[in-house]
Each structure stands twice: as C-alpha cells, then as structure tokens.
Amino acid sequence: MKILVCVTSVPDTTTKITFTDNNTRFNKTGVQFITGPYDDYALARAVELKEKPGVTVTVLNVGTADSEPVIRKCLAIGADDAIRVDAEPTDAFFVAEQIAAIAKENNYDLILMGRESIDYNGGQVHGIVGELLGMPSISPVMQLDIDGSTAKLTREIEGGKQALEAQLPLILGCQEPIAEWKIPNMRGIMTARTKPLKVIPPAGNDTLTKVVGYELPPPRGSVKMIPAEEAETLIQLLRTEAKVI
Amino acid sequence: MSVLIFAELDEGKLKGSSKEAIYYGSKVAESLGTAATAIVIGQADDAELATAGRFGAAKVLHAADSKLTEANGMAYASVVAAAAEQEGSTVVVVAKSSLGDAMAARLAGKLRAGLAANVVDLPNLSNGFRVKRSIYTGKAFAETELTADKKILAIKKNTITPEEKEATASVEAFSPALNDSDFVLKVTNTEKATGDVLLPEADLVVSAGRGLKGPENWGIVEDLAKALGAATACSKPVSDLDWRPHHEHVGQTGIKISPNLYIAAGISGAIQHLAGVNSSKVIVVINKDPEAPFFKSADYGIVGDVFDILPRLTKAVNAL
Ligand SMILES: Cc1cc2nc3c(=O)[nH]c(=O)nc-3n(C[C@H](O)[C@H](O)[C@H](O)COP(=O)(O)OP(=O)(O)OC[C@H]3O[C@@H](n4cnc5c(N)ncnc54)[C@H](O)[C@@H]3O)c2cc1C
Ligand SMILES: Nc1ncnc2c1ncn2[C@@H]1O[C@H](COP(=O)(O)O)[C@@H](O)[C@H]1O
Fold this sequence. Notes:
Chain A is α/β, with parallel strands linked by helices. Helix content of chain A is 25%, strand content 32%. In chain A, the strands form three sheets. Chain A has a nine-stranded mixed beta sheet, sandwiched between helices. Chain B is globular and about 60 Å long. Bound molecules: flavin-adenine dinucleotide and adenosine monophosphate. Chain B: InterPro entries: DHS-like_NAD/FAD-binding_dom, ETF_a/b_N, ETF_a/FixB, ETF_asu_C, Rossmann-like_a/b/a_fold.
C-alpha cells in the first residue's frame, strides 16, 4: 500500500502574527515553522500503518526551500521519502493541482492530509484534489483502520460522529484522535538525513485567488473585573451593557 | 445569473447559519443587480422553505431525492453545480460548517472556482471582487481578490446580522441527474446529540476547562448553559481526557466558533485555546487565578472559584 501525506509548513501556534511592507507580507522574522498540527496527525497515523509490511509513506509539500526542515522532520518521524514542489503555496487550487499531478503519476492508495492548514484554515485542498482525481474525500477523520482494500473510519459531524466504510483509493483530512503526535528519535533524525527528498518544479501556475493585503484585528477593549461577591451583576451587565442575553 | 446560496437543513429546518448566508447572498445579489436563489437539499416542507424569503431569497430550488437525505458533500456539490449551471450563477455563498466546507471544496474543484473561506465581510466590488477573510485561526485578516470567473464565499458565523422582511420565496423542485460515483461511502453508524444547541451554530456558549477537576462536575456547566439556552464547549485537555466528547473541543485543533457570548470557566487561556474563540463578540472569563492569561483577552472577568460562581450565575439567569 502506498500512502501520500501532504504537509504544510506553518508558523508555530504560539506565533504573534505581524506583517511587513505596508501590510502586504507576512513577517517571518523570528518565527518558528512547524508541521501543521492536523498534518502531524495524518503523518502519525500513516507511520503507524507502516508497521504492516509493504506499506510506504511519501511526504509531499508544496513550498519553498524554507519548508525543508519541516520535511526532514517528517522523514525523521518515519516517512520513507519526500517530494517538495518548489513554489510559493499561495492559493488552494494551485496547491491542489500540484498534489493531483503527483498523485496521477504515482497511484497512491491513500492520500492523507490535515483537516485544515493553520495559516489559511481553508479546509479545501482535500476536496479540490478529490474532484481533480475523481476520488472520494472525507474530512475530518478521527479514526482510521485499513482492512484489505476497505477503509473503516470515523468522521466528526456537528454534534457527533459517523462511522463509514469506503474502498481505497481515498483522500482523508485528518484530526485527533486518529493517532498521537510523534516526536522524532535520534535514530530517526540520523536516517532522515539520507532519505530521498526530491525537489520538482510546479506543474502550471493556475491561481484563482490572490491576497492583496493583510490586517490585524483591533485589540479587545480592557477587561471589566467584577468582584466575586457581586458575580450576579455579570448577568445584568450582559443584558443591559453588552446586550448579548 | 442569480447569486446561489447553499442552505443547509437540520432536522427539516433551515439552519441559523444558513439563514445568515441567505441574507448575505441577497446583499451580494443586490450589489450585483441580480436576485438570490437558495438551493436546499434534503427533506423539508415547502412552508419551511418559503421562509427563505424572509432573509432575501427570491426563489428556493429544492432537491428532495431520497438518495440525498443523508448529508453527502460530494453528491451535494454535484447538485449545487447543476443548480449554478441552471441559474447561470457565478457566485455561490455557503455558511462555514462541516458539510458546507466539504461541499464547497468539491464544488470549487468542479467549477474551477476561486474559493474564499472564513469570509467576515460583504465583498468589495469597487476594485475587482475582494473579500476580507479571517486567517491564522482568527489572528489576522487577508484582503483576498477572487480572480476566477466563478466564485465561492464560505462565510463565518456572525458576519452579518440578517434583517428579516415580510416575504416568501417561491419553491421549485430541482431534480438533477445523480452520479453513482458520489454515493460510494457507506455510512455504518451515526451518533448525534439531538435537542442540544449545535456548538458551531450557537449564539451563546458556556465552556469549561481542566479547572472543573473531573467530568462528574459538568452539571454546573450544563445548568448555566441550559438556563441561557447556550451550547457547551470545552478545552482540549478536557476532550483528550475523555471528560467531554471531541465535538465540544474548541481551539486551534478543535472547532472555531464566533458566538455573541463565550463564557470560559476554569480555562487558563492558552494561545491555542484563544485561537478558536477569539472572534466571539463578548468573552467572560471565570478563573480563580488572577494571573490567568485569559483575563487579558476578556471583556468581563471574575476572579473566583467556578464551583461557587457558576451555580450563582445560573440562579441569577433563572431569576431574570
Ligand atoms: C499544537 C497545539 C494545539 C492545541 N490546540 C488546543 C485547542 O484546540 N484547544 C485548547 O483548549 N487547547 C489546545 N492546546 C492546549 C493548550 O496549550 C492548553 O494546554 C490548554 O488549552 C489548557 O486547557 P485548560 O485551560 O483547560 O487547562 P489548564 O491550563 O490546566 O488551566 C486550568 C485553569 O483552571 C483554573 N482553575 C483551576 N481550578 C479552578 C477553580 N476551582 N475555579 C476557577 N478556576 C480554576 C486554573 O487557574 C487554570 O487557569 C493546544 C496545544 C498545542 C501545542
Ligand atoms: N502547501 C501545501 N503542501 C502540501 N500540502 C498542503 C499544502 N497546503 C495544504 N495542504 C494539505 O491540505 C490540507 C488542508 O489545507 P487547507 O485547505 O489549506 O486548509 C492541509 O492540512 C495539508 O494536508
């Protein structure tokens, strides 16, 4: 079984977001980049599935050379090889076309992604790739088992969850608790250095959206503290001042 | 060439977020000099569907094929694509939701449409077609130009407040040909809380964290939620520990919500938690530690013990 895991390289979740060049560029100064947390769940499940013989895991990122530390970390966690499409991942459709082009050449049985990227939070790429490949896509997936060519999985729905069965090949957007996040060990880090990382140019350059500028939300006003003895007045304030109840 | 709105049903009723999407779509239609059409998939009666008119839809297309009763992002995308084709729609509006997201992504692939997710404002048409969308999990906004002919806008809750009017929409049956390839997933079991307010739809949310000490103490959270008519939510450790179901977990790796009121009890306010709730209109924090970081992001704060404060708040609400 061949598994493709698509990963993003995104600012660490504790990053204070700022912009430069008159609010037209994300300010990368001092920012630590990590694998998207949802992508990490996808990778962790893929590496677990590799415990069975004959399973290979390829990691794919559409991004600039800046993504390589994140890709190496995925190799250290247990992926066999990696592909980087050398391009700025500016638009979901563009990214989806890159992934679809590679998937067409390689016939993966399972394409695992995160539920959403944490920079643009689109939750779109899996569905678009599914459409481009004529393959089912399911998200967010919380549990996954493979039995021959059948996938048994659970996805979250609003207010609950749903168990599904489907035939491979499939595209899945993953979230917890599909697997525990994995941290690379020393051996993994050593072997990752020699695992193949292929860099390829993008196929085409179709983009359907373009960011023209960024903005930060206005700061919240200062907090109004209510003494614990008078906690009940909160309810009055919510009604008469904030007007939300 | 109307603006098409994908409106979702929950147990035969139009969802609140979809009413907002219809209103939003009707405003977009107004500025484009056209009308708004809603496409509704699943079982519902005509009287309910006609209420889409109150929110600005002139017409409702109703796809009621029994194969479509089960929510199915792939099949729904095919139906919406057929509706867009029939209506000549180049702009499709959906409310962010798990079904809406799945449908919108497949539709974007089918139509080669530019898709903007988490839109928080009406489009600006003065210079191309631009929308403001929330990015970095609520920490910033991106002004985004949709450059393709076809456009899909997935709007975040509380983007616009619908003003209802006295009007009914005409309801037309819509029965496009369905593709077998859209029905390959076999649902073997569905577990869904019924009767509760759905968290992503809720205007009011009462949320609690590890400060509650254990699942057996959730009664005081549920009591306040019930008194307010609110949904309940929780922090990640609480769902990791299985104190509460995963679909209640909000934050960076959970559900992102933007209710009118978010009450956080016994939650420290880690940046990953804030990411999921920072676009709430009003935030109330109750924590016994005056140094809890959450107070910095709150509108109202009470330094106190949740086991004392929550029951008193419930009483105060019930006395209103
Ligand atoms: C990549 C990543 C993603 C993450 N995603 C999420 C996410 O989506 N959602 C999320 O919530 N977290 C997320 N986290 C975890 C986050 O960093 C925090 O660990 C978590 O939010 C803490 O939960 P908590 O506030 O319930 O618990 P704690 O941090 O343990 O806080 C408990 C609070 O309760 C207070 N308290 C205790 N007893 C009482 C009492 N009797 N009365 C009043 N107050 C009391 C304490 O003062 C404390 O402030 C993520 C972390 C990472 C690294
Ligand atoms: N630049 C990228 N390279 C590889 N995979 C990506 C990229 N962008 C998004 N993905 C995958 O698509 C998922 C959903 O992303 P999004 O639609 O941007 O929220 C992510 O969790 C990744 O698995």
